[in-house]
Design brief:
Elements (H helix, E strand, L loop, with lengths): L10 H28 L19 H44 L1 H16 L5 H5 L4 H21 L22 E2 L10 E2 L10 H37 L1 H15 L3 H9 L1 H5 L2 H9 L2 H14 L3 H23 L4 E4 L9 E3 L12 H29 L3 H8 L4 H9 L4 H25 L10 H9 L7 H28 L3
Antiparallel strand pairs: 1-2, 3-4
Helix pairs in contact: 1-2, 3-5, 5-6, 5-18, 6-7, 6-11, 6-13, 6-16, 6-18, 7-13, 8-13, 10-13, 11-12, 11-15, 13-16, 14-15, 16-17, 16-18, 17-18
Length: 494
């Protein structure tokens, strides 16, 4: 079987168009920068309806040319994907193989965009995102990796298991046919093999799931901690504000990498420090939900009591599932060494045990991000609590927690949503950094940081093993930043 080229037979038609459009676009962008300083703009023409016509000078002409070239480039990429998905690897090379393997992702993206655009006027801030080009691009990049992670976890798009080692495929370049392929085996390593003869494409797909299952939830927990502490610190002020702010600044002053090194050391883990931190930090969603519901429905006990029983019951059960391990909340015994135990959720009800490495990473990310979220929430609350509608709520006799959670917090949602997206990006980079240094996650983990670290050892000879996961990390973080920009742009219009 012959090795695959990047675009196969499809490249004879689309490759010249792609490279011509990319080259002309690069030239036009350079000309735009030069003309912005050197050439005056043409006079703007005012139409009869009062609108202003496009710039007729050299800068305006080059700007329009850049826009058309960009559209042509995007159309060419979409043609690669659409035709490649039909032809597959035999007709469209590596691009066709990737496009066909990712077919569930393309279908999910098309359906998501179609439904979202059709009902965008009814979807609040999320719907307004589709009025922003930057936001739509960022959202597309983020959801692409979300769907890749989800479908990859279901083994719908991977070509090989990420830990499978195939003889003769060590450091093979992208498109290398599989040696000794049997019936049912995928015939190629689409993105090549790494230094242990594992499929790079499948490891990237599985690595996306490692990011998706940790970064958003760790960021959400950090926001629960930051909001729960930031609102009362700003609203009450005084010694409470000083105490919490001092602790937050103390954590922010501590070197992050050193913290991770400390948490993964056997001596620290043996005494249960990560588990203690988990028990403390994971309780904040329960506290937040309890205060939120009680402050909203305290005048309706017939509704509040059953609602709190159901919600808090589910949250407490989830809490016990996350912190219990083998029927214990704490178990410091190691082999024959003496230790102590504290009973937790019975093993029959504990359907999920968080691996120790992931627990350390999760707790560390929440611990590091919480002080920054606290400072953001505190700053917003200090400003909003002086507004007239807060004074009106105080005049009505509303309680402090009602004012904090139902008057101040909703009016701070715009900046917090934007920061949430950005902080997921920071967390993604942090997870890549931890994987690169081998902290927390197991050595055979397919996360992008570990994959990049494995590939960098032969980077000058076989760059594909490190470049592809690095580009994956780059595109996800870029998408989160663009999504945050789009949300910020639309939230400012409210």
């Amino acid at each position: 079987m012959e090795p695959l080229t990047w675009t196969g037979g499809l490249g004879t038609v689309l490759d010249p168009i792609f490279f011509l459009a990319a080259g002309l676009l690069a030239v036009s962008l350079v000309l735009q920068v030069i003309l912005a300083y050197a050439a005056p703009s043409g006079r703007a023409q005012i139409n009869p309806d009062g609108t202003i016509a496009a710039d007729t000078g050299p800068y305006g002409m080059v700007s329009r040319a850049s826009m058309y070239l960009l559209l042509l480039l995007i159309a060419t990429v979409l043609a690669y994907i659409a035709v490649g998905a039909v032809l597959g690897p035999n007709g469209a090379g590596i691009v066709g193989g990737l496009a066909r393997r990712l077919l569930p992702v393309w279908i999910a993206l098309v359906l998501l965009y179609a439904v979202s655009i059709a009902y965008k006027r009814k979807l609040g801030l999320y719907g307004k995102l589709f009025d922003s080009t930057v936001g739509m691009i960022g959202f597309g990049l983020v959801m692409f990796w979300v769907f890749v992670g989800v479908f990859g976890a279901m083994d719908l798009i991977i070509t090989h298991q990420p830990l499978d080692v195939v003889s003769g495929m060590k450091n093979k370049v992208p498109g290398t046919p599989l040696r000794g392929a049997e019936d049912g085996d995928y015939a190629w390593y689409l993105l090549g093999g790494d230094n242990l003869a594992r499929d790079v494409f499948s490891r990237i797909v599985k690595g996306a799931w490692e990011v998706i299952k940790i970064a958003p939830f760790a960021t959400l927990f950090a926001f629960m901690v930051g909001i729960t502490l930031g609102l009362p610190a700003a609203y009450y002020g005084g010694w409470l504000d000083m105490l919490i702010s001092f602790l937050a600044n103390l954590i922010l002053a501590f070197p992050v990498i050193l913290l991770f090194y400390l948490l993964v050391t056997p001596e620290i883990s043996a005494v249960g420090v990560p588990k203690y931190m988990a028990m403390f930090l994971f309780a904040f969603p329960i506290i937040f939900a309890a205060v939120l519901l009680n402050s909203r429905y305290h005048t309706q006990p017939s509704l509040r009591t059953p609602l709190m029983v159901i919600v808090l019951g589910l949250l407490i059960y989830g809490y016990l599932v996350m912190v219990s391990d083998g029927g214990y909340l704490l178990d410091t015994r190691r082999g024959d060494a003496k230790g102590y135990t504290f009973p937790g959720l019975p093993s029959a009800l504990d359907f999920f045990d968080m691996p120790p490495g992931i627990l350390v990473v999760f707790v560390s990310v929440v611990f590091v991000n919480s002080p920054t979220v606290f400072r953001i929430v505190r700053g917003l609350a200090l400003d909003i609590k002086t507004r007239d509608y807060v004074a009106a709520a105080q005049t009505r006799g509303e309680g402090p927690w009602y004012i904090m959670l139902w008057e101040i917090l909703p009016n701070a949602r715009g900046p917090l949503i934007v920061d949430f997206c950005l902080r997921i990006g920071y967390t993604t980079i942090l997870l890549g950094t931890l994987g690169f240094f081998g902290l927390g996650l197991p050595p055979d983990s397919p996360d992008w940081g570990t994959t990049i670290n494995d590939g960098r050892k032969l980077l000058s000879i076989y760059p594909h093993a490190a470049i592809f996961p690095a580009v994956s990390l780059l595109t996800l973080v870029l998408g989160l930043n663009l999504l945050a920009d789009g949300l910020r742009e639309e939230s400012l219009k409210d």
